[in-house]
């Protein structure tokens, strides 16, 4: 019982103590604290929401930046791939361009071949040639026999007479010269159309070249445009000749280029052994204050020596000898008492090393003669090799081949046209160069005598194409297919091809005149041939009847 009462009392006391009204002040602040807590919780929630938004924005910015970087990387990769593809196409285009250029140069250097029919041929021709009809074989045969063979029968007799007189004249020249100070003259050689049997235009003129060398102890050191040193484009085809002592080093010594001082002495050269030629040689052969051979000085010496030689032997001959042209120093003329005359050119040349290439002092009169850079620049002539090439090829051609006939007919027609309309820049040497290219390009059987008309047409087409492109390459320079039997110097085979029509690019008036003359010759071809053609019997339908030249 007491225990139960105690439990009841304890419960009542506990209830009274925990009643809310028992402590009014302390428990009265509970509602206010709750609102404050709620307000703080709302503020915290708002700050957290703002922070979340900020973080989401940063994440979005990072994702955008990452996407931009990935996109930029893709663009860079595509750009690299595109550049690689572009470089590949550029390299491929350059290779194709180089192949086309090499093919074009081979085509223009004479590797042109006629593989198509008449329609393909006419597609290559220009407008001026399409309306031209060549005479038939019978007319060409009659023209050739009457006009060409009839006028060239006495060529061999004239060559023999001129060569004999030239040998006698040069022997007298050696006797009047001072062997210790003057040039040493060698035997002359015949070159050009008279010695290649295709000269047709009168007056006949023999071209003779005379190699010469300096007296001891001097020698010539030749330098060409393709020997390694840089030459301007307008000096291609030329070279210089330096007069040196035979014991002088080719590369020269430093004592010749540097002042050593009064107390220093070169161990290789003494004061007596000078690298410069003597004053006599310098006044006679070289350009002023240089060691380079002067073509004008050489021609003056040669004219004086020829005059002295003729005065010594003139009593043996019943004709007079004189220089025929003032602007062509080597042009000589023999005048007989009957009034007839014979003209020939005697031109001094310098041999290039041990070959048959020669530096020539002067060429015959030319419309481009003023383009020579200076009197110390000598042009190279390959006339000896040209004659040998024609002789070599002729051995492989059919009997009575038409190659010489083509050149003779074309040379005659061009000469007649120039006599009507005036001279042009096109020369017989250009015509011969065309023939040389075709001789190398075409097989031997294509030059049979019955194919004269076709080969003549080939020469006209080739020449017209060269005139249109202003490109006619020298046959030997840059031609790697020169027969080894000729012994042609390899340095010229490896050189860049020399365009014989390059001067006409700068001289447009001469080029225009040359093209007009060629087109006029095409239009007048039939009339010019018929003018010298006799009546042809109907039975005369075979090819050309030729006699050995």
Automatic annotation (TrEMBL):
Residues 404-477 form the Mab-21-like HhH/H2TH-like domain. The keyword DNA-binding does not apply. Keywords: Cell membrane, Coiled coil, Glycoprotein, Membrane, Nucleus, Signal, Transmembrane, Transmembrane helix. It is a single-pass type I membrane protein. PANTHER family: CELL FATE DETERMINING PROTEIN MAB21-RELATED, INOSITOL 1,4,5-TRISPHOSPHATE RECEPTOR-INTERACTING PROTEIN. Enhances Ca(2+)-mediated inhibition of inositol 1,4,5-triphosphate receptor (ITPR) Ca(2+) release. Belongs to the ITPRIP family. This is Inositol 1,4,5-trisphosphate receptor-interacting protein. It comes from Spizella passerina (Chipping sparrow).
């Amino acid at each position: 019982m007491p225990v139960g009462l105690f439990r009841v009392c304890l419960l009542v006391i506990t209830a009274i103590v925990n009643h809310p009204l028992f402590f009014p002040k302390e428990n009265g602040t509970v509602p206010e604290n709750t609102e404050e807590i709620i307000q703080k919780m709302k503020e915290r929630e708002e700050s957290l929401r703002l922070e979340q938004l900020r973080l989401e924005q940063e994440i979005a910015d990072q994702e955008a930046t990452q996407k931009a970087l990935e996109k930029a990387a893709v663009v860079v990769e595509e750009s690299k791939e595109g550049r690689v593809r572009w470089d590949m196409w550029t390299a491929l285009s350059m290779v194709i361009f180089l192949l086309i250029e090499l093919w074009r140069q081979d085509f223009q250097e004479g590797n042109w071949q006629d593989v198509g029919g008449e329609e393909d041929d006419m597609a290559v021709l220009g407008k001026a040639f399409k309306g031209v009809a060549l005479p038939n074989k019978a007319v060409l045969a009659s023209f050739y026999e009457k006009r060409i063979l009839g006028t060239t029968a006495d060529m061999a007799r004239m060559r023999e007479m001129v060569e004999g007189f030239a040998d006698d004249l040069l022997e007298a020249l050696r006797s009047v010269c001072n062997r210790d100070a003057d040039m040493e003259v060698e035997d002359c050689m015949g070159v050009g159309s008279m010695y290649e049997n295709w000269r047709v235009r009168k007056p006949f003129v023999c071209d003779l070249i005379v190699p010469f060398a300096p007296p001891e102890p001097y020698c010539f050191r030749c330098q060409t445009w393709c020997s390694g040193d840089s030459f301007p484009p307008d000096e291609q085809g030329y070279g210089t000749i330096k007069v040196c002592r035979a014991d002088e080093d080719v590369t020269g010594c430093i004592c010749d280029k540097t002042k050593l001082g009064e107390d220093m002495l070169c161990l290789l050269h003494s004061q007596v052994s000078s690298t410069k030629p003597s004053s006599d040689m310098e006044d006679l052969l070289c350009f002023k204050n240089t060691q380079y051979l002067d073509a004008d000085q050489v021609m003056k010496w040669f004219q004086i020596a020829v005059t002295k030689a003729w005065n010594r032997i003139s009593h043996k001959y019943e004709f007079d000898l004189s220089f025929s042209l003032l602007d062509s120093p080597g042009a000589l003329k023999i005048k007989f008492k009957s009034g007839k005359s014979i003209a020939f050119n005697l031109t001094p040349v310098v041999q290039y090393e041990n070959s048959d290439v020669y530096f020539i002092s002067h060429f015959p009169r030319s419309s481009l003669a003023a383009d020579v850079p200076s009197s110390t620049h000598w042009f190279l002539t390959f006339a000896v090799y040209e004659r040998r090439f024609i002789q070599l090829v002729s051995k492989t051609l059919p009997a009575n081949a038409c190659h010489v006939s083509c050149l003779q007919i074309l040379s005659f027609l061009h000469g007649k046209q120039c006599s009507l309309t005036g001279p042009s820049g096109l020369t017989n040497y250009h015509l011969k160069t065309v023939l040389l290219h075709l001789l190398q390009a075409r097989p031997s059987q294509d030059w049979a005598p019955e194919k004269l008309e076709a080969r003549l047409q080939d020469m006209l087409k080739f020449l017209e194409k060269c005139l249109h492109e202003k490109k006619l390459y020298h046959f030997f320079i840059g031609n790697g297919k020169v027969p080894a039997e000729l012994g042609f110097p390899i340095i010229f085979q490896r050189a860049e091809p020399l365009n014989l029509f390059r001067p006409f690019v700068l001289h447009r008036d001469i080029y225009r005149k040359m093209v007009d003359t060629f087109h006029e010759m095409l239009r007048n071809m039939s009339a010019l041939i018929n003018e010298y053609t006799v009546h042809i019997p109907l039975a005369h339908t075979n090819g050309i009847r030729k006699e050995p030249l």
